[in-house]
Amino acid sequence: MQNIKIISQKLKTLNKKLYIVWGFCREKIMWLDNTWWDIDLVTDATPEEMKQVLKIVWDIWKKYWTCIVSEWDETFEITTFREDIGTINNRKPALVKFTKSLEKDSLRRDFTLNSIYFDLETETFIDPNWGIKDIKNWVIRFVWEPRDRLYEDSLRLLRFIRLKYKYNLKDADENCIKTLKNQVTLLEKLPVERLRQEFDKILLWNNNIKALQELKDIWFLKIFIPEVDILDTIPWNKWHLEWDVWIHTKMCISELNKIIENTQFTTNDKIILYYTILLHDIAKANTLTFDESWESHYFKHENLWAEIFKQHLSNRLNFTNNQKKEIYWLIKNHIKLFIIPEMKKLKARKFMMHSLFEKLLIVWDADNRWRIPVKEWKIEQLRNIYSDFKNILKHKKFLNGNDIMSRYPELEWRKIGERLIMLNDNILLED
């Protein structure tokens, strides 16, 4: 914050002002004590004026009136007050026009809670669209007409849902859900990576269950992940409390929220776990059968899922190659975990040596907490087996190719690999 104040003082020498807008303001008003603030800076100074007193390391002002400013090795993005005119692909303004008016600048913003300005000089809020009142009433409201705001930038639809459930806000307009539903097809024009960025943020927040249900209600899932959307048409069986597979999926996500709440997983690790749970039962629509007593079954759904994921979902959802591999392995093996106690020792130990095995335990735990009867003992059994194996593994030293070549110099190249596998398997079997 100190460097931002220095920038403000430098602009003051030109009789110009610097303001903070966006996340900093709304969370400051909500009394949220964050160590990192979502800070956006705006000013009534033009880029040419900024260049007179600030160190500009990059500017994109000709198109968006924005400069990247450096101050004591810290960089900030500063945008001149502007008006956005028209739209390109319902995402970016067709024309950007400079204005000296803070009020006009505020009218281009998405929600009233994002159109509050913090004056760095006076340390007061400027609120041209009554955003503070909405925050205090725990309401989320578009700046002016929702349909127009969404037409200008359709990504605001996902941002609306994300912020609504991040802060547990209410809709200001009783027809808001209807409006979102009518405009959701605009998102089809956007690149998948932009949709994923917003959708990932929704998944990562603890209120993700309600947000996912609203995304289903406005037909977002029907358009972009139809395999998930139809899960509410797939019945569950007597081994589960849930009425259908969609309810089960939401319950699993809820359990995953609890399991990883206090873990040190990276953001990417969490994304992999959430998508694994979200998608883990989509093949049950294709494998649903009934026996003579009309009990439902989904035999080998995990294997069919793997093929559905590989052929359709992995590219459509824009996963990285690493994410594809991890999600694929986790879901393909999420049933296999159940039979570890009955596996042969070598097979079980090789399985537990997989780099994703700890994630698999989490997936299995989240997937099975609502079974009838609850098998809490089973996850404890699996964790104990894995813990005991890790302790054994600490004291093992496996051989490499050089070891084999020095011990058996007469072996041909192919035989070296075979001997290496055989000897390391023997080492792995030792207790």
Short structural summary:
This protein has 431 residues and is an alpha+beta fold. It has helices at residues 2-12, 23-29, 47-53, 61-64, 102-106, 131-136, 146-152, 156-166, 176-183, 192-204, 208-217, 220-224, 226-229, 245-260, 267-279, 284-287, 301-316, 321-332, 345-352, 357-368, 376-393, 401-407, 413-429, and strands spanning 18-21, 40-43, 55-59, 66-71, 74-80, 82-85, 95-98, 117-119, 124-126, 139-140, 170-171, 289-290, 296-297.
Structure description:
The chain is α+β, with helices and mostly antiparallel strands and 431 residues long. The protein has four domains: 1-137, Beta Polymerase, domain 2 (2-Layer Sandwich); 142-222, Hydrophobic Seed Protein (Orthogonal Bundle); 225-382, Hypothetical protein af1432; 396-431, no CATH class. Helix content is 51%, strand content 11%. It has 23 helices and 13 strands. The strands form four sheets. The protein has a seven-stranded mixed β-sheet. Strands 6-7 form a two-stranded antiparallel ribbon. Strands 10-11 form a two-stranded parallel ribbon. Strand 12 (289-290) and strand 13 (296-297) form a beta hairpin. Helix 8 (156-166) runs parallel beside helix 10, helix 8 runs antiparallel to helix 11 and helix 14 (245-260) runs antiparallel to helix 15. The longest helix has 18 residues, at 376-393. The protein starts with a helix and ends with a helix. The relative contact order is 0.06. The model has no long low-confidence stretch (mean pLDDT 90).
Topology record:
Elements: H1 2-12, E1 18-21, H2 23-29, E2 40-43, H3 47-53, E3 55-59, H4 61-64, E4 66-71, E5 74-80, E6 82-85, E7 95-98, H5 102-106, E8 117-119, E9 124-126, H6 131-136, E10 139-140, H7 146-152, H8 156-166, E11 170-171, H9 176-183, H10 192-204, H11 208-217, H12 220-224, H13 226-229, H14 245-260, H15 267-279, H16 284-287, E12 289-290, E13 296-297, H17 301-316, H18 321-332, H19 345-352, H20 357-368, H21 376-393, H22 401-407, H23 413-429
Parallel strand pairs: 2-5, 10-11
Antiparallel strand pairs: 1-2, 1-8, 3-4, 4-5, 6-7, 8-9, 12-13
